[in-house]
Each structure stands twice: as structure tokens, then as C-alpha cells.
Amino acid sequence: MAHASSDHYYVPHGSHWPIVASVALTVGVIGAANWFNGNASGQMTLFVGLAMVVFMMFGWFGTVIRESLKGAYNEQVDRSFRQGMMWFIFSEVMFFAAFFGALFYARVLSVPWLLGGDFSTHEYLWTGFGESWPTNGPGNVGGEFETMGAWGIPAINTLLLLTSGVTITLSHWALKANDKSKTVLWLAATVLLGVVFLGFQAYEYVHAYQALNLTLGSGIYGSTFFMLTGFHGMHVTIGTIMLIVITIRAAKGHFSPDNHFAFEGVAWYWHFVDVVWLGLFIFVYVL
Domains of the chain, with CATH numbers? Predict the structure, then answer.
């Protein structure tokens, strides 16, 4: 595979994909906001926005893959990709840090304050409110519910993701050893583990709604539970799609021991997803 000279930096041509991404995300956010506020058109608008995001991702990434295979990139571009991926993962860390912060605030600060802080505000506004965590807040928002136990499906999903971290590492080692068959085999195993994780999470959500009456509207516990686990599930879905793509690329021989940033970028993202889940398992399910 030819590569661009290390003396020149590749400047990409004009691209329509950033505009498509901006429009897609805007449509998706507008749809979600309307859906959550009870507007009938919100759900369809959200799905249209998500479909546009998927279209954009495949189109934009496909362009990058074709340019890479043509040898348009050099070591300097590779460093730029790595720095960009690191900053992207950092932004994702901050994204989840905000939601973990919301959980911390609700659980450690606001609920104890409502239960009888220095000013005993609840005695005036929410007489009789005396629950502790997990709570659905003053007024029993969303009705009575049961919490999700940690040692059933959540524990199985923890084992699945930890195992997937091992399989993708084994695949990376095989790639660096130029063993194509084992690279693809361990990547396929990682994809399978991700799909099984998502299947179990979907079952857990159905069980929560139907058997536990635990919904997104079950007060602060329900909203933080589904917000954290739901966004994590979305990231696992995206990560699984990325894994499928690099599995196909590995099978086609797109990677070499010295040139496989796309593989490494997806592996970094997947390890990030693993670490976030460990935090979720401890702070949402166990504690």
C-alpha cells in the first residue's frame, strides 16, 4: 500500500458530511425534545434524525477508509487521527461525568436535604415525605416501583463486557503478529459479546417496565437509571457497529501490523465503554 510523503500533510477536499451531521443531530434533538413532551410527531422525527446520523457515519467513514486505502495519509495524519480520537474519548468521559454528577447530586445532596435539612423544607412543601434512596421523589412520582438487582442480568453483562475487553486485546495482539485468522476470530467474538450484552439489556428494560413498574418516569431514581444505562447502551450499540466494520475490514486485509489506526481507535472506544459500565454497575446497581 502506498503512503503519502511524510513531507506533506494531507488536506481533505471540501466535504458535505459535516453539514449532514449537523442537520441530522439537530433533527434528532428536536424529535427527542418533542417526544418527551408528548408531541405525536416527536418519535418519528427522532427516528428520522437517527437514520440520518447512521447514513452520515457510514458515508463519512467510508470516505476516510477509501482515502486511507489509496495511500493519501502519512504518519502526521495518523498522529492527527490519534489525537482526535483521544479528545473525542475525553469528551465522552465528560459526557458521562455530567450524568454521574447528576446521580451524585440527587442521591447524596438533594434527597437528604428534602428528607430534613437545616430548614426542614419538606415539612412545608412535601408533608409526609420520608423516603430514602432509591426514591421517586416527593409525591411518589410515577407510582411505586422495585429497584433493579445487581446480581442477575447486570452481573452477567459485566462479565460479558469484561470478557469482550480481553477478546479485543487478543485480536490486537494477533494483528500485530500478522495473524489474520485470529485477528478476525477474536474480533467476531467481541462483536458477539456486544450483541449479547445489548440483548440482555433490552430484556432488562422490558422486565423493568412490565414487572417492576420501573420507568423513565419513576422519579429521580428511574430517570437517572435509564439515563445512565440508556446512554451507555447507545454507546455499546455504536461500538458494536464499529466492531462489525473493522471485522469486515480485517477480513479484507485492510490492516497491517504497522498501519491499523482504525482498529486501535475502535479498541480504545470499546475499552472506554467497558470502564464506564464498571462505574455504572457499582454506583447504579450495587450501591
Answer: 7-73 (1.10.287.70), 74-286 (1.20.120.80)
Collapsed DSSP state (helix, strand, coil) of residue 259: strand
Among 134, 133, 100, 126, residue whose Cα is nearest residue 231: 100
Residue 236 has pLDDT above 50, yes or no: yes
The residue behind cell 432509591 is 134
Please give the Cα distance from 7 to 4 (Å, whole number). 8
Average pLDDT, the chain: 82
- Lowest-confidence pick of 50-54, 62-66, 99-103, 199-203: 62-66
Residue range 30-60, pLDDT digits in tens: 998 998 888 888 889 999 999 998 898 888 8
CB neighbourhood size of 15 (10 A) = 11
pTM over cut 0.90 = no
* Radius of gyration (C-alpha) of the chain in whole angstroms: 23
**pLDDT reading at 73 higher than 80:** no
* 200-205 long-range Cβ contacts below 8 angstroms, 24+ apart: 200/153, 200/156, 200/157, 200/160, 201/153, 201/157, 201/229, 201/233, 201/236, 203/153, 204/148, 204/153, 204/154
pLDDT at 101 over 60: yes
* Distance between CA atoms of residues 139 and 123, nearest Å: 13
**C-alpha dihedral over 229, 188, 88, 166, to 10 degrees?**
80
Task: Answer whether 183's CB lies under 8 Å from 195's CB.
Answer: no
CA-CA distance, 183 to 176, in Å (whole number)?
9
Residue 192, C-beta contacts closer than 8 angstroms, at least 6 positions apart: none
